[in-house]
Amino acid sequence: MGARHTGMMLKARSQRSLERAAALVVKGSDYPYLHSALLRTTAAYVIEDAGYKENVIPSEAHVRVNCRGIPGGQKPRDFVADLRKRLKGRDIEVRVVAPEGVSEEEQLAMLDETWAGKPADLNTPLYKAIKQSSVQTYPGARFSPALFEAGTSLGPWRKKGIPGYGVYPYVISNEQLIGMHGNDERIFTESLEKGTEFMYRVFSRFKA
Fold first, then answer.
1. pLDDT digits (tens, 9 = 90+) for 115-164
2. Neighbours of 199 (CB within 10 A)
C-alpha cells in the first residue's frame, strides 16, 4: 500500500473522501482482496438452500451470510440494522444466528462486547521470539504488527492474560491467499519449507 494513499485515509473528513482513498489503497495493493476486506465490513454468502423438487418453483429460500467487521468500525447491530433498511419492502426477513435459547438482543450484546478487543500486548517474550525468528528467516523483510484478517482461537487464552498472535509463518502470493478455504487451497512447497523453518526457530527460543 502506498504511504500517500494511506495518509489520505487518515486525513479523510467525510465518508466519500474516505471511500475514495480506500479505493486507491486497494488499487495499488499487491493483495487487493485482502486490503479491501481490511477496510470495511465484509459479507460472504456461504450457505444457500431453496426448493425440494426440480420442476417446482420454491416458495421460499434461505441464505446464510458470514459477516466480518472491522474492530472499531461498524458494530454488528448497526450492520444488521443497515441491512434490514436496504432490504425493506422486498419480503426478505433478516435473522441473527444465535445459539439455541439466546435471543437476538442477547447475541448482539455479546457481539458488541467482543467485536473490538484491545490490541495484543507487544511487550512479551512470545512477540519478541516471533520478531527475531521472522528477521532471521526472511532477511531484509520489515516486521510490524498488523490487523489479522482471519479468525483465531485466542479468545479464551487472552481472557486469562495469556498472550497470543495470529501469524502466517510463510510468505504467500495473492493467488494463494484468495484460494484459502477454496476448492484448490494450497501453498507452494518453498513456502511450506520456509514456514516450517520459521516455526522451529520460534519454538527453539522457548526450550526448557
1. 766 778 889 999 999 999 999 999 988 888 887 777 778 878 888 888 88
2. 16
Q: CA–CA separation, 28 vs 9, rounded Å?
A: 14
- pTM score of the predicted model: 0.71
Kindly state the cell numbers that stand for 85. 433498511
Cα atoms found within 13 Å of the Cα of residue 155, Cβ hemisphere only: 9
All three cell numbers of 6: 494511506
3-state secondary structure of 45: strand
Q: What is the pLDDT of residue 101?
A: 94
Task: Please tell me the distance from the alpha carbon of residue 176 to that of residue 188, in angstroms, as a whole number.
Answer: 8
- Do residues 106 and 98 make contact, with C-beta atoms less than 8 angstroms apart? yes
Mean residue pLDDT of the chain comes to 86
3-state helix, strand, coil in the chain (%, to 5): 45, 10, 50
Strands of the chain, DSSP E: 42-50, 61-68
22 φ/ψ angles, rounded to the nearest 5 degrees: -65, -40
Q: What are phi and psi of 86, to 5 degrees?
A: -70, -30
DSSP string, 173-208: -HHHHHTTTSTT----HHHHHHHHHHHHHHHHTT--
Task: Output 182 or 96, whichever has higher pLDDT.
Answer: 96
